[in-house]
Amino acid sequence: MQKKKILVTGGNGYVGRTLTRLLYDHHDVCIIDSLRSGQIRFRKDEQKKFRLAQVDIRDRAAIEKVMADFDPAIIVHLAA
Q1: How far apart are CA 15 and CA 10, in angstroms?
Q2: pLDDT at 8 over 90
Q3: Element (H, E) at 74
Q4: Dist CA 67 CA 23 (whole Å)
Q5: Four-CA torsion 38, 44, 46, 52, nearest 10 degrees
Q6: Residue 55: which of 47, 70, 66, 71 has the closest Cα?
């Protein structure tokens, strides 16, 4: 399997966490989440396996910066 760069919006939510855990050992994963519903819900050892951009998806400039910096091949939109 070829390693891909995958961006997950809402990656700290219930479904996002499950998906991120399935992906981070085999791909480069970046989570975009505002953490509006609380703090990060991953264990400390897991947090080393992906990038976290604490960004509101409505902030166009911040999203553009994350997209330019990470350059994902795949985007999974789970933010509500």
Answers
A1: 8
A2: yes
A3: strand 74-77
A4: 19
A5: 50
A6: 66
Model confidence pLDDT, tens digit, residues 14-55: 999 999 999 999 999 999 999 998 899 999 999 999 999 999
- Phi-psi map region of 10: left, alpha, beta (phi>0 left; psi -120 to 50 alpha): left
Locate 20 and state its tokens: 């991120």
Structure tokens at 32: 């975009």
The whole-angstrom separation of Cα 7 and Cα 13 is: 14
CB-CB contact of 14 with 33 (8 Å): no
For residues 66 and 45, give the distance between their C-alpha atoms in angstroms, rounded to a whole number: 23
